[in-house]
Amino acid sequence: MLVGRPEPAPLEHIVAAGTAPEVVPAIVTHAHLSIVKGNLPGGQMQARAVSRDFVLDPQQRRAIVMLAAALGMSSADASTIGAVATQVRHAMDVSNTSIGVLVGASTGVATLLTLPAGLLVDRTRRARLLALAALAWGVLMSLSAAATTFDFLLVVRLGLGGASAVAGPAVASLLGDSFPEAVRGHIYGLVLAGELVGAGVGFAAAGELASISWRASFAVLGPPSWLLAWFLWRMHEPQRGGTASAVAGAGARLAPAEAVSSWRRLSIVRTIRYVLSIPTNLVLILAGACTYFFFDGIRTFGVEFVTGQYGVSQAVGTLMILLVGVGALAGVLVAGRLGDWVESHHHPAGRIAVAMAALGASVAAFIPGIVVRSALVAVPLLTAGAFGLAAANPPLDASRLQVVPPGLWGRAEGIRGVLRQVGDTTGPLAFGFAADHFFQGGRSGLEGSFLLMLLPLALGAAVLVLAIRTYPHDADVARADAGRDAPAGRGWGGRAS
């Protein structure tokens, strides 16, 4: 048995974090404290009360817009590469594998820098760190437009990977501290919608401008990021740990600020051990990596696939991808709220159950959509597949925050980002390599590659069965740890099983 993460107290002690005046989150009123003696598990009863009363204030609305724009910024870049992949490949005389390398290079750098970025997120002002990343991103996008050789473009994309490494940890930490846990699935859906809108803007702008010049597709995305950097610099920095709820254990509890400060000081080694000793977290990381593995392949080769498979022009192919993207947008908006509702009203692992069902449905819809040759038949199938693929992310992202104390959110997301980036990096490479070497390239090559890469997506759905069993317990342990000092000493520093 691992040590360092104690068991939760009995359910009758479950209360909103710090019902004493100095700790109570404003969103939980005294009228609902009696629900902890109800028939549902304490976390569900708290969630039901909070979700019923919660109303966004203007500051929270601005936070949603800024966080969504930050994710959209990063997503637009990767989508632009996908939309102009054919033009770049012809202009620089490179193969599908080289295009995969171009995308994989930036995600590879992000893999190396995501954990250090998570450390900065936990120990600095997160909004301003995100603003600096947005500023750097805009400069590097402008340099991408000026690239004259493949090697120069590759070097610039290495820099883009460093800038994008900040987004995931900063967004997760800011979102967790700005919104109560009962509505985080819904809020994550709104924020992730920004990521998809950014992908759509990248596809639309690049697709329209590609006929003029692929360079213009990069250049047009630089200036908006500078404006975003200005707004992020002025964004409100929420109190760390102010929205958490906890299991009150034996002995004195720490105030949120004191507990968060203790966890923020935890060393990188002990943080890694702690985060990776949470069974639910490991399963959610694996499932998320499988999802993004397939998503990044679509984002890179989607336009090229549809133009070849369905015999349409570049402009029509870009429009088809945008229509499919509408399905993905609907998926994140519906599943986030649905996961919150199922978890608070019906099942303590409701968010994970929603994500598992969404991924399974996605695989079932993608198979016929990839095989058929008619664009009219393919669009609704691919749209349904994109709905399920995207729908899994908001409930999974919200669930990860539930099983980790607030003081570790930046580094935990950094650790998750490192492992997720394996999927981001290998996805485009695997799609391109399989198309060129397993299926002899061309239209049939991409068709075979897309079908083969559905296997990891199916695996992601299957492993979530394990998380449904472990999630309620791990969430209660995280609530207990939110009011305690971080593990000290030279032991393992993991969780108790």
CATH secondary-structure class: Mainly Alpha
Task: Please summarize the sheet with the most strands.
Answer: 2 strands, antiparallel
- In whole angstroms, the N-to-C terminal distance is 6 Å
> Which strands sit side by side, in order, in the main sheet?
1-2
Domain tally: 1
Structural class: mainly alpha
Mean pLDDT: 78
At CATH level 2, the architecture is: Up-down Bundle
CATH topology: Growth Hormone, Chain: A
Instruction: Evaluate the radius of gyration.
Output: 22 Å
Strand content: under 5%
CATH superfamily: MFS general substrate transporter like domains
Q: What's the total helix number?
A: 20
Gross morphology is: globular
Helical content class: over 70%
The helix/strand order is: EHHHHHHHHHHEHHHHHHHHHH
Low-confidence stretches: 6-40, 248-252, 489-493
Strand element count: 2
Key words describing this protein structure:
497 residues; mainly alpha; Growth Hormone, Chain: A; two-stranded antiparallel ribbon; 2 strands; 1% strand; globular
Describe the model.
By secondary structure, the chain is mainly α. The chain has one domain: Growth Hormone, Chain: A (Up-down Bundle). 73% of the residues lie in helices and 1% in strands. The chain is built from 20 helices and two strands. Helix 13 (279-309) runs antiparallel to helix 19. It is globular, with a radius of gyration of 22 Å.
Provide the fold topology.
Elements: E1 14-15, H1 42-53, H2 58-83, H3 85-91, H4 96-123, H5 126-145, H6 150-164, H7 167-178, H8 184-210, H9 214-219, H10 222-233, E2 246-247, H11 256-264, H12 268-276, H13 279-309, H14 314-345, H15 350-371, H16 375-391, H17 393-402, H18 409-438, H19 442-452, H20 454-481
